[in-house]
Write a structure and sequence with these properties.
Layout: H1 2-11, E1 14-25, E2 28-39, E3 43-47, H2 54-61, E4 69-74, E5 80-82, H3 95-103, H4 107-115, H5 121-125, H6 133-146, E6 151-155, H7 163-175, E7 179-183, H8 187-193, E8 196-201, E9 204-208, H9 212-247, H10 254-266, E10 292-303, E11 306-317, E12 321-325, H11 332-339, E13 347-352, E14 358-361, H12 363-367, H13 375-382, H14 389-398, H15 415-427, E15 433-437, H16 445-457, E16 461-465, H17 469-475, E17 478-483, E18 486-490, H18 494-505, H19 527-564, H20 571-599
Parallel strand pairs: 3-7, 3-8, 5-6, 6-7, 12-16, 12-17, 14-15, 15-16
Antiparallel strand pairs: 1-2, 1-4, 8-9, 10-11, 10-13, 17-18
Bound molecules: adenosine-5'-triphosphate and magnesium ion.
Protein name: ABC transporter ATP-binding protein
GO molecular function: ATP binding; ATP hydrolysis activity
Pfam families: ABC_tran, ABC_tran_Xtn
Length: about 600
């Protein structure tokens, strides 16, 4: 029995204690009387608005920032693993050399931990500089773990991660035995990895043994309950006051009136902190258009010494919101860069139809901000000419920059505050086509939601790269997949795509979006069911053959028209031809898959 209690104690010891901490930056109070305790088995998601003080809290814990008052106690057994924002390696190193020199561990130990992130012999021998961003992050995670920490501090680890690495990280964290604290604005990621939530709000820390979704529900209920209770208290106060007002002067009732006055003085309402301001983003209206917006034909992208993808052909129509998906290093950013003419295409061509005005948002915009400018000065300098001051203030307000904030210098802004500022600047330029490379990085939930909602209602065209699943799910009306030297439109919605990807991570064979509609034909089933499934497949095959014949005819007719009218350019027919071609490819692919299944 005693051993049991002992074990429990061992399992649950305090690692870090934060007591009544106060932290100031100039006049701005970041934390005040902030306290919390972090135990050895906790999996904590750290949430809070941009600029709330989350990164500051981590820096205080690892001793990089001083505090103005209070205490931070780190238990002697605590070994903190901090996922460094900067890269701890020289790019010329091979992965294994770096891991060994950084951690002083034997190569077999390095290999064992690295395997958790699917870094095997080939990757261990490769030079770090040749790895994609996702793989470099895997190397950093491996290095951190080799130092055998018992608590991990991860500050926005999901920024810049490709989905496969993200899913691997999720899987790893779900099986991790130690404690961790993760700052992230990705709700789904936190929901899937953490069981406690630390809310950084109103300059305080509040820890809850609830997963994020449950905590947010609880928070809402709590607020509603407090509001109700205050209403009741107020009602009671009014009743008592009425009695005092009516009978207070009467001698016969004086004693009762005095007692009621006492009761009034004892009534207490619960303090309700003013709710944080709501983010509401209005993208300036653009003229809606129809038909093709961007057409790409047989294009090859890459760099003089390296082709990234070739034979790219597809069309994007006005008003479409296209998510560009695929692992890091596969060429998503290269594709965007080629389309904004940052780099030339190697072969083939693309064109924008008339009246396209493109705005580009990417990570480098954040880095290039002039630190000396204030928020207002920056927005004023970037807005289209003659934008009235109130429009600038309105846009700044949508992104929660008001009053004193407007004079804040860019140099002191948090990651999320900088990202908001750049987005506000871009939207002030009134483009009708937006190319967004990881727009949700750094932004807090509320801002991401508001931005997703605004983009969905935007009448212009949007091409975006994002690993934030909640964001992509809301915004995307179409998907372009960049994978192994190919770029193609993916048929199926965003959820289908994610399911496919997760299956690959778990090592199960890929099941395309289309196959799911087919009857299941798994091996251990009874023969009767197999026959049933077989028939269903054959029926589907016949239906497909008919669809293919019809579509081929349509394509032929259209082609004939082009041959008969070589001098006329008909936008609608061109677009239709493109669609029919894609549809045909898609049908033929399905036909092949079913054929294969039937013959297996
Ligand atoms: N050196 C500094 N001088 C003045 N103000 C600062 C300094 N560093 C940070 N701040 C301010 O302190 C606040 C908290 O910053 P912090 O980086 O901790 O926020 P955060 O919660 O991590 O936000 P985000 O979600 O955007 O990363 C911000 O308003 C930021 O502008
Ligand atoms: Mg931060």
């Amino acid at each position: 029995m005693y051993a049991g209690i002992d074990n429990e104690r061992k399992q649950m010891s305090t690692l870090i204690q934060v007591m009544n901490v106060e932290k100031l930056y100039g006049n701005q109070e970041i934390l005040k009387d902030a306290s919390t305790v972090i135990n050895s088995n906790q999996k904590i998601g750290v949430i809070g608005r941009n600029g709330a003080g989350k990164s500051t809290l981590f820096k205080i814990i690892i001793g990089e920032e001083d505090i103005d008052d209070g205490t931070v106690r780190i238990h002697p057994d605590t070994r903190i693993g901090y996922l460094e924002q900067h890269d701890p390696y020289t790019p010329e190193d091979t992965v294994l050399d770096f891991l060994q020199s950084y951690t002083q561990k034997e190569s077999w130990e390095c290999g064992k931990v690295a395997a958790q992130f699917q870094l095997y012999e080939k990757e261990l021998e490769a030079k770090i500089k040749g790895l994609s961003g996702g793989y470099q992050m895997r190397v950093k995670l491996t290095a951190m773990l080799l130092k055998e920490p018992n608590i991990l501090l991860l500050d926005e680890p999901t920024n810049f991660l490709d989905l496969s690495t993200l899913l691997l990280l999720e899987k790893f964290l779900r099986g991790y035995k130690g404690a961790f604290m993760i700052i992230s604005h990705d709700r789904e990621f936190l929901e899937r990895t953490c069981t406690s939530t630390l809310d950084v709000e109103h300059r305080q820390l509040s820890m809850h043994a609830l997963s994020l979704g449950k905590y947010l529900e609880f928070k809402q209920q709590q607020l509603e309950m407090n509001l109700k209770q205050n209403e009741q208290v107020e009602k009671k106060r009014q009743q008592l006051q009425q009695f005092v007002d009516r009978f207070g002067a009467k001698n016969t009732k004086a004693t009762q009136a005095r007692s009621k006055e006492k009761q009034i003085s004892r009534l207490q309402t619960i303090e309700i902190k003013t709710p944080l301001r709501k983010v509401r983003i209005n993208i300036p209206k653009v003229e809606p258009r129809k038909g093709p917006a961007i057409e790409i034909k047989d294009m090859t992208i890459g760099y003089p010494e390296k082709t990234v993808a070739k034979d790219i052909s597809f069309t994007i129509n006005h008003g479409e919101k296209i998510a560009i998906v695929g692992d890091n290093g596969q060429g998503k950013t290269t594709l965007l860069k080629t389309l904004v003419e940052d780099i030339p295409s190697l072969q083939g061509s693309f064109r924008f139809f008339a009246h396209m005005d493109i705005g580009y948002y990417a990570q480098h915009v954040l880095r290039k901000l002039n630190n000396e400018l204030s928020i207002y000065e920056y927005l004023d300098s970037i807005a289209i000419e003659n934008t009235p001051r109130e429009k600038i203030l309105q846009m700044a307000g949508s992104f929660l920059f008001r009053d004193d904030d407007l004079n804040k210098k860019i140099s002191v802004l948090s990651g999320g505050e900088k990202a908001r500022l750049c987005m506000a600047g871009l939207l002030l330029q009134k483009h009708n086509c937006l190319f967004l490379d990881e727009p949700s990085n750094h932004l807090d939930f509320e801002t991401v939601e508001a931005l997703a909602d605004a983009l969905r209602h935007f009448e212009g065209t949007v091409l975006f790269v994002s690993h934030n699943r909640a964001f992509a799910r809301v915004v995307a009306t179409g998907i372009v997949e960049v994978k192994q030297g190919e770029v193609r439109r993916y048929y199926g919605n965003y959820d289908n795509y994610l399911e496919d990807l997760e299956r690959q991570i778990d090592g199960k064979p890929q099941d395309s979006a289309q196959e799911k509609e087919l009857p299941k034909t798994s091996k251990p089933q009874k023969k009767q069911i197999d026959i049933h499934a077989h028939r269903a497949l054959q029926k589907r095959l016949r239906k497909l053959e008919k669809q293919i014949a019809d579509t081929e005819q349509q394509k032929k007719d259209l082609f004939q028209w082009f041959e008969d009218n070589p001098t006329i350019y008909d936008e609608e027919k061109t677009q239709h031809y493109q669609q029919v071609t894609e549809e045909l490819d898609h049908l033929e692919e399905q036909w092949l898959e079913i054929q294969e299944e039937l013959s297996s």
